[in-house]
Amino acid sequence: MKLLDKVAIITGAGRGIGEATAKKFVQEGAKVVIADISQADVDRTVEEIKAMGGEAIGAIVDVTSLESVNKMVKETVEKYGKLDIIVNNAGITADNTLVKMSEAEFDRVINVNLKGVYNCGQEAAKVMAEQGGGVILNASSVVGVYGNFGQTNYAATKWGVIGMTKTWAKELGKKGVRVNAVAPGFILTPMTEKMPEKVLDMMKDKAPLKRLGTPEDIANAYTFLASDEASFITGAVLEVTGGVVL
What we know:
Strand order of the largest sheet: 3-2-1-4-5-6-7
Strand content: 15-25%
Pfam family, one: adh_short_C2
Oligomer: single chain
Function: Catalyzes the NADPH-dependent reduction of beta-ketoacyl-ACP substrates to beta-hydroxyacyl-ACP products, the first reductive step in the elongation cycle of fatty acid biosynthesis.
Order of helices and strands: EHEHEHEHEHHEHHE
Binding site for NADP(+): 12-15, 89, 154-158, 187
Number of helices: 8
CATH architecture: 3-Layer(aba) Sandwich
CATH class: Alpha Beta
Catalytic activity: a (3R)-hydroxyacyl-[ACP] + NADP(+) = a 3-oxoacyl-[ACP] + NADPH + H(+)
Helix content: 40-55%
Family: Belongs to the short-chain dehydrogenases/reductases (SDR) family.
Largest sheet: 7 strands, parallel
């Protein structure tokens, strides 16, 4: 098992990529904290993991609140005595073109996708630096690397996450903490399932592999980067896109 006895927090783990990552981590031997703002999603995911024979606890967290994040990290360490991995996966969209985007739409996405990653990364880094090691994994996006029509706010956050990832890798390497990001392409999640069929078909056609990614595709990437198999990888951005940017 690649993550045997590791303790991992995964934000946005109530569904989609976060849920798939939590289940993959458990299959690889980790104990996981299912962190999400939705009580119902947290409860369901925790119960499903326990039914798999895995160990999981829930944490209701608002990643935009440093107090909420601090409480989540503190309770994790109190229960398990350490924190080996955090996956900063929580994120939202509020799409609009530049001239039509409202201040509220911009601020909401910035707060969750950028400030939320900052809050979680900062609190996790304090614990990991003190214990002498750990792994921080951040959710970027192909949109953060190449931009996308109607996603000024989202693209800005995902590019910002890359900047934080590389900065933290430089700052925390001497403490034994690795920091990497994953940049998914078009992934079939509850967020994208709401899109019209013709848009999904267009996304498939853009990729040389001619399919959308699955949450499990991204979970596999996080699992590799969290494991000792990636022990000499830090400051990297792993694109998992099906070749959509070629």
